[in-house]
Structure formats: structure tokens, C-alpha cells
Write a structure and sequence with these properties.
238 residues; alpha/beta; six-stranded mixed β-sheet; three-stranded antiparallel β-sheet; binds adenosine-5'-triphosphate; ATP hydrolysis activity; AAA+_ATPase; nucleotide-binding; ATP binding; ABC_transporter-like_ATP-bd
């Protein structure tokens, strides 16, 4: 069986900026992979290439063995949270979800399911323009889950979530993977990542600096943050 996500040899330049140079990442079903790196390391660029939003200069990015553009009913295979600002501010959360359900071919009944799933029912009928960052994150995740996908690609999904929201997201992702799903997750909240992921791919300035199982990177007396600071240039500091 194909891996849920398989990225090999991905390279991408923007003008003179090398965003990615020969980067790979693999996510098996049943696993949560932390895709980590300092600001500007190339994480969002790889995720965007994986979802067919930008064209890489070299390499391939496959979801369940196919490029995103060749997936049949992609919303039922992969859900993504990339840009939480993309929803229309004058729409209510419910209207946004109904529109996305119709566009993606999901049943209307999924709207109530995903609102309940992310705990967004109390503000389902409010305009998105009035939402806090955490409310937007929950709505973005609800949108990603509309098609009931078995693969999730999440760019900093805990950004703006309160402690209860972060704990909820952690257990949601664990349950999702334990039920056979696959998650590629970027985050800067390393103590949370350490309790969420099975595997880590760490990149710095567009290049892979470490990839493998979390337990091979982190020990009891050396948390993930220590490994991150040791392996990345200046530990991400300017
Ligand atoms: N559309 C673009 N045009 C020009 N440069 C870009 C573009 N998108 C990304 N870059 C550059 O590519 C590099 C990688 O950016 P990217 O957003 O992938 O990093 P990131 O790891 O997601 O960072 P962060 O943790 O800050 O979100 C950066 O130098 C960024 O400025």
C-alpha cells in the first residue's frame, strides 16, 4: 500500500530564495508526523506543493500514491488547514461550511457533524469576521473534516487555540491516527508537538536536518526543544 503522504526530492526557489532543496517527508497511515523548522524554513511551501497550490521545480509530492491533482474526490481523501484567513468575513461559520460542503460534494448533514466535532456550535451562526484566532482555527479544521478524509495536512493548527483547545486538538489528532488516519503537522509549540507526534522531520533553510522517530530524537532529560535548538542554525534566532 502507498504511504499516506510521500514527498521526495522536493526543490522550490522563489527568485533567488531557495525555499526547499531536495526535501522529503513520509507519513504512514496511523502516524502523526511533526514537520518542524524555524521561521522561513520551507514548511508551508512543502505543504502548498503537496496540495497542488504551487508547482515545485523538482521532485514529487504524492497523497495516497498520486499527485493531489489526480486524486478522485480529493476532499474525501485529504483535509488541509493552511490559511485560516481565507473564509469570507461576512459569512457565518455555518454558511461557510454549507458552501464548502456543496463545492466538495459532502452531505449537508456533515456540517452539523463537523461543527460538533470541533466544538464550534456556540458560534456557528455568527459572522466569521467577528471570530477570534482560535475560533477561526476550529472553523478551518471543521472545513478540512467536511469530506471525512483519512489524511490531514495542518499548518500550525494550534495557533491561537486556548489551553483547552490545544489539549482537545492533541487528543483529536491521536484518535484520528489511531483510527488509521495520517497527519502531517507543522507547529512551533514544541512541548505540545512532543506529546502529539510519532515521527519528526526537521528542516532548516530549505534542507532536511533530521528525520525519524520522535523517540530517537528526544530523551527524558533532553526535550524536543533542545534537539531543535541543537540541530537548527542559531536555533531559529535571528
Ligand atoms: N510566494 C512566495 N514568494 C517569494 N518567497 C516566498 C514565497 N513563499 C515563500 N517564500 C519564501 O520561502 C521561504 C520559505 O517560506 P515558508 O513560508 O515555506 O516557511 P515556513 O517554514 O512555513 O515559515 P513559518 O514558520 O514562518 O511559517 C521563506 O524565505 C519565504 O520568504
Amino acid at each position: 500500500m502507498s504511504a499516506a503522504i510521500e514527498v521526495r526530492g522536493l526543490s522550490k526557489r522563489f527568485g533567488t530564495v531557495v525555499a526547499l532543496e531536495d526535501v522529503g517527508v513520509r507519513v504512514e497511515f496511523g502516524r502523526v508526523v511533526g514537520f518542524l523548522g524555524p521561521n522561513g524554513a520551507g514548511k508551508s511551501t512543502l505543504m502548498r506543493a503537496l496540495l497542488g497550490l504551487i508547482r515545485p521545480d523538482a521532485g514529487e509530492a504524492l497523497i495516497a500514491g498520486r499527485p493531489y491533482a489526480r486524486l478522485y474526490a480529493p476532499g474525501t481523501r485529504v483535509g488541509a488547514v493552511l490559511d485560516i484567513a481565507s473564509a469570507h468575513p461576512r459569512m457565518t461559520a455555518r454558511a461557510h461550511l454549507c458552501t464548502n460542503a456543496a463545492l466538495g460534494g459532502a452531505a449537508r448533514s456533515r456540517v452539523d457533524d463537523v461543527l460538533a466535532l470541533v466544538g464550534a456550535e456556540p458560534y456557528a451562526d455568527r459572522r466569521i469576521g467577528t471570530f477570534s484566532t482560535g475560533m477561526r482555527q476550529r472553523l478551518a479544521l471543521a472545513t478540512a473534516m467536511l469530506g471525512d478524509p483519512d489524511i490531514l495536512v495542518l499548518d500550525e493548527p494550534s495557533n491561537g487555540l486556548d489551553p483547552g483547545g490545544i489539549a482537545w486538538l492533541r487528543s483529536f489528532l491521536r484518535g484520528f491516527a489511531d483510527a488509521g488516519g495520517a497527519v502531517l503537522l507543522s507547529s512551533h509549540v514544541l512541548h505540545d508537538v512532543q506529546h502529539t507526534v510519532d515521527d519528526v522531520t526537521l528542516i532548516d533553510r530549505g534542507r532536511t536536518v533530521w528525520a525519524g522517530r520522535l523517540e530517537d530524537l528526544v530523551t527524558h532529560d533532553a526535550p524536543l526543544e533542545d534537539a531543535f535548538l541543537r540541530l537548527t542554525q542559531n536555533g531559529g534566532r535571528p
